[in-house]
Amino acid sequence: MSDTAPELLRNWVSRQASAEAGDWFEKQCDKLQSDFDQKSFDIAFGLVPRKLGKEDLALSAEDLAAADAARPGWNPGQWSLDVAARVCFLVTLSKELSKPFAERFKSLHRTADLGELLALFSGLPLYAAPESLVLLAADGLRTNIKAEFEAVAHRNPFPAEQFDQNPWNNMVLKALFVGVLLEPIQGLDERANPELARILRDYAHERWAADRLVSPELWRCIGPFAQDEDLADFQRVIEHGHATEKKAVALALTTAPESAGKADLCARLSEYNAAISDGTLTWRAIADEMFDNALAITRKLNFEVEMKR
């Protein structure tokens, strides 16, 4: 955990807050750093939204570059002002050695409201002794609350760095189940594995058997391991899928092992070759298309995402 990270957080919060709120925040930071007291922390942690508000944290491209330089993979681009302030406090708490931070994290998690949970999980890449938080982070992924799930899974280097294969695979599958995008998951391509491909293949077959549609992003994790059965699934998408699904299969095929079946499917999707070659068609573009064109709609009862027919 870089010492630069809490300095950046402190500067970002202070410059955006009102004069009165910024003065309160600075005093709390100084108090926590000079003479840590659990009661003072608990009071300050709880007062953050009331003192600072919950507006989006205003960050420039230079700020985001500084974040990544301070801690590779750290991306606070979707944080709010209260999350940033609370993470700043939590980073200080993680360095206080009188009690293991994992115990304090667990205690805070037990009574946290949603705003506090978002801060706890968003700060995962910045805390001291991250290896002690793996099980707690995995527990956070059991939720069906999208914002809480995304705090762990999205724009966060912690899962890719710390999770073993089983919790990693469960996180990717759960992302599809609760209806959040895969594209913001860091390390998705690097952590691809045959077991995850098998799990997602079975999941896709279950969806089809129930006459449910399958997220186009799923094929990204299957592509590098696509063999005969997977190529048959790709063919089904080509024959019956939406344009976005076909684009996703075209991208997935670029990572598939060479075979006659792959060559045939690539030929059938040749209309997308130019867009793939010039970088126009990417997994980010697929995610943007799902969102911008309203192909994805949320079903409130089960939090799944479907494609409009």
Break the fold down into its secondary structure elements and pairings.
Elements: H1 4-16, H2 19-34, H3 38-52, H4 61-70, H5 81-94, H6 101-111, H7 114-122, H8 134-140, H9 146-153, H10 158-162, H11 165-178, H12 194-209, H13 218-222, H14 228-240, H15 243-253, H16 260-268, H17 273-277, H18 283-292, E1 296-298, E2 305-307
Antiparallel strand pairs: 1-2
Helix pairs in contact: 1-2, 1-5, 2-3, 2-5, 3-5, 5-7, 7-9, 11-12, 14-16, 15-18
Features of the shown structure:
18 helices; disordered C terminus; two-stranded antiparallel sheet; mainly alpha; 2% strand
The mean pLDDT is 91
Tally of separate helices? 18
Order of helices and strands: HHHHHHHHHHHHHHHHHHEE
- Helix percent reads 55-70%
Structural class, from helix and strand content? mainly alpha
Domain count, please report it.
2
- Low-pLDDT segments: 294-309
Largest sheet: 2 strands, antiparallel
Tell me what you see in this structure:
The chain has 18 helices and two strands. The chain is an all-alpha fold and 309 residues long. The chain folds into two domains: 163 residues, no CATH class; 146 residues, no CATH class. A two-stranded antiparallel ribbon has the order 1-2.
